[in-house]
Amino acid sequence: MIGKLRRSYVIVFLLIVVAIVSPMVVRMAMQARGPAIEIFCPDGSRERITLVQMKQMRTVARKGTYQNQFGNWRDEGFYAGARLMDLIPCNTDYTSILCCSQDGYAMEIERARVEDSDYPVILAYAFNGIEVPDWELGFRIAVLPLDGNVSNEEYNVLSAGSYWVKNVDRLVLKDSTRVSAP
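Predicted structure:
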């Protein structure tokens, strides 16, 4: 009698463990591995893009640096990443992209700038050959003209550096009639 009772407790315990652990294992197996960002579309949908997926896209790789609000040149190095416009899900209409950082910083970039072929805007995943997640600044927005230099004057802003958002974790696509909220 005591043996049967003990066996029943063991079986119930094992069933509880399986019931708790199974959903966690399934969830982990379904998640894409590695670093990723989320893209929020104006229609309310969202998409997760992984580093592996980004590396399968056309890569822009070149030297880059920017001028900050004080006129200093910063963060010179060799950047590699996917063009921001290539990350946008097909058939998505947008007027601007809000690039959001893990620390709460955000920069809104107008569509005309995103699609400017003279000043390609990329989501960099590597700096000087070091890739995310080893690159401590994480995914980073970078503007990479052929000469690699983005001055305040030529970009027609107070600080070209304000566009170089580091540790990007999400992109929020906006259009003139509605905004998707993460």
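Summary: The chain has two domains: 1-31, 36-174.
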